[in-house]
Amino acid sequence: MAHHPHDEHEHEHHERGHGHGHGHDHGDIDWAELAPLLEAQAELFTPLYEHALSWLAQEVTEPGLIVDAGSGPGVISSLFAETFPGARVVAVDGSEALLERARARAERQGVADRFGTLAGELPEVLGELDYPADLLWASRSVHHLGDQGAALAACAGRLAPGGTLAVMEGGLPARFLPRDIGFGRPGLQARIDVAEEERFDRMRAELPGSVAAVEDWPALLASAGLHHTRSRTFLLDLPAPATDRARAYVVAALTRTREIIAEDLDADDRATLDRLLDPDDGASVHHRPDVFVLAAHTVHSAVRPV
Ligand SMILES: C[S@@+](CC[C@H](N)C(=O)[O-])C[C@H]1O[C@@H](n2cnc3c(N)ncnc32)[C@H](O)[C@@H]1O
Question: What does the alpha-carbon distance between residue 40 and residue 256 come to, in Å, rounded to a whole number?
């Protein structure tokens, strides 16, 4: 089963061969360079994460330790700290630069006293946690690990009995524009999705220790020894007219598409994308009135037997 490059942020998968300032090796993505995009994305998607977290909160009561594995800049980690005021939250990531942002955010949100970070390679670094987790969350990070089944088993192994593992993986490709935008061949975003599927596949194949796996997340969680699997999809629905923030995000996401997969599109679609990104063009995403953000992310959760 193919992965759905379910949102524009999956573009980061395709980053290749840039700087190596993050000091670890998990593919060629320069996560620190992506920090502003990751952070702006997570901030815009906050309503979606809030729904996901309140869904989790129905089942997970008074967790002592919450671990955010592959936290990136920690927008969701801080949301966890706010949603579960009795919990300590540890953000874990391979990029120290991103964890620095996570700590700064926790400070700004007033939750720094129960917020920590742990830098290192997933999933091995989870072995350095002092305590088992009552809730371990991994959003859009497991698919960056070569052996996803082994990664889930490692996560499950760090849960306290009765603890919950929740992974956000899959969903639907995001939409920003109507099918027909008045120029170019209709259906541009669907063709971008196809190109991204191909890139995603190559990204996974090139990961260290890459293992092919059927991306049946409930089955993978069950194989990791967990039970009570549940899946639910959360929507981000920011209709037109877009706010400045949503519009800026669409510009950033399509700019990244242009950088990463433009050569996989045909010349007509490339020209359409160029026009959409030209600030001097009244029909570009900088100005057009019909820009929106519609995205769907799926959370799969499961519980470690007591
Ligand atoms: C797509 S971002 C997701 C960030 C955040 N969880 C979110 O949903 O917005 C993936 C994150 O996983 C981290 N990551 C990817 N591969 C990793 C690895 N092998 N070890 C540790 N962290 C890794 C990256 O540094 C990045 O912050």
Answer: 14
Q: Which of 8, 31, 79, 80 to mutate for ligand 1's pocket (most ligand atoms within 8 Å of CB)?
A: 31
Mutate to test the pocket of ligand 1, among 141, 142, 168, 234 (most ligand atoms within 8 A of CB): 141
Distance of alpha carbon 254 from alpha carbon 151, whole angstroms: 31
- Our CA angle for 206, 209, 215, nearest 5°, is 80
* Mean of pLDDT values over 94-111: 97
Q: Which of 89, 141, 140, 135 is nearest to 111 (CA)?
A: 89
Using CA positions, which residue lies closest to atom 22 of ligand 1?
Answer: 94
Q: Which two tokens stand for residue 288?
A: 């057009």
Give the pair of three-digit tokens for residue 243: 């706010």
Atom of ligand 1 minimally distant from the CA of 12: 1
- Cβ-contact 282, 266 below 8 angstroms: no
Instruction: Please state the rounded mean pLDDT for residues 189-194.
Output: 97
The two tokens of residue 276 are 């959409």
- Mean pLDDT over the full length of the chain: 91
**Region of residue 273 (phi > 0: left; psi between -120 and 50: alpha; otherwise: beta):** alpha
Which range is least confidently modeled, 28-42, 153-167, 258-272? Answer: 28-42
**What's the predicted TM-score (pTM) here?**
0.91
Residue 218 has pLDDT above 50, yes or no: yes
Query: What are the DSSP E strand ranges found in the chain?
Result: 65-69, 88-93, 115-119, 133-139, 159-175, 227-238, 293-303
Atom of ligand 1 minimally distant from the CA of 168: 8
Residue 40 pLDDT exceeds 70: yes
Per-residue pLDDT tens digits for 113-124: 999 999 999 999
